[in-house]
Design a protein that fits this description.
Length: about 130
C-alpha cells in the first residue's frame, strides 16, 4: 500500500502572472523549485489564500532569479497577480516511510518571491 504525502511546500508565494492562453501548468522560478526540491513536470496542489481555490497541475521551471509564479491556462480564471498561494508537492510513500518524512517548507517573505527561508516541517512549533 502507498499513501499520498506532502513532501514539500512553497508557503505564501505571490502570483506574478496569470496566462489564460498558455497550455496549462504553473510556472515557478527555478530557484524556488531548487529550494523546495520540486521538479519540473511534478504534480502539485495549489491553494489560493485570497479565495480558497484549490487546483492541481504540473510544474514548469521558470527563469532562475525571476521570482516568477504564473498560473497558466484554466487556473488563470481563479488566481490573479498579487494573490498569495501555497504550493504543495506530494508523493506516494509506503507507511514505513512516514517515520522519516520531514517535508521541506520554503517560506516566501517578499512579494517578489525572491526573499525566502527554508525550514523542515518538523521544525514548525505546534502550539
Amino acid at each position: 500500500m502507498q499513501l499520498r504525502a506532502c513532501i514539500a511546500k512553497i508557503h505564501r508565494a505571490t502570483v506574478t502572472e496569470a496566462d489564460l492562453n498558455y497550455v496549462g501548468s504553473i510556472t515557478i522560478d527555478a530557484d524556488l523549485l531548487d529550494l523546495s526540491g520540486m521538479r519540473p513536470y511534478q504534480y502539485v496542489n495549489i491553494t489560493s489564500l485570497a479565495n480558497g481555490t484549490f487546483w492541481q497541475t504540473y510544474v514548469v521551471a521558470g527563469k532562475r532569479g525571476s521570482g516568477q509564479v504564473c498560473l497558466n491556462g484554466p487556473p488563470a480564471h481563479h488566481f490573479r497577480p498579487g494573490d498569495k498561494i501555497i504550493v504543495l508537492a506530494e508523493a506516494l510513500v509506503r507507511p514505513a516511510e512516514f517515520e522519516h518524512l520531514d517535508p521541506i517548507i520554503v517560506i516566501v517573505e517578499s512579494d517578489d518571491n525572491l526573499k525566502t527561508r527554508v525550514i523542515r516541517h518538523g521544525d514548525v512549533a505546534h502550539g
